[in-house]
Amino acid sequence: MSLNGRSRLALLAAGIGGTAVAGFGFAFGRDIYKKTKKNVELIALLLAAVICPFIGGRGLVRGHDRGLFGTIFLTVLGSLLLIAAGLCAATLLMFGVLVLVTDGKLDNPFLLALLGAFVVTALLAGMGIVVGLVQRPKRLKAIAVGKFNERFLKENGFQETDGDDITHYDDSGQALRFLEAHQNRLVFMAVGRRGKRAFIDLDQDGRMVSYSGVK
Length: 215
Hints:
Keywords: Membrane, Transmembrane, Transmembrane helix. The chain is α+β, with helices and mostly antiparallel strands. The chain has 5 helices and 8 strands, in the order ββαααααββββββ.
């Protein structure tokens, strides 16, 4: 590897071969890109075979805030479709590997590929289910706390805006700007009232328990 009779590594070490080294790096990167582009379908199949069953299994059990139709079509059918997509991708991958390795000498490579893909997909979906079950209690608790807080804000006359300067109005019509969240309270600035603050107190689970008003 030389440039005009000189080693690129030597030029790189000396710090005087910037252009040459950059050209070499560009050519190397271009080769990697070409190889990746040629194998993009293979990479997509591999990702689908691994990720889809895991996400599908997790989505079945981790808990969601959805109605009846959302539960049926998104939680159940959507998750099962992801698992099925992973199974199809894994089957295609294993079929290709078997044909390549055995040079097409197997009598029924598709059936063997389907069996292997089923085992892999079942394992990945099972891992997703385990992760979903672990996440479920905390997730359901967070959903319940969120609903409780929505009721609190509504009952206390809070209105949320889409602005940055004014983010909320309280029940008296006072404009507020949300500043920061602490473990035990939310802090607002009273817009138009210098140095005044308002607070929403939180319990240990994050439920809103009281509004201080502007102080």
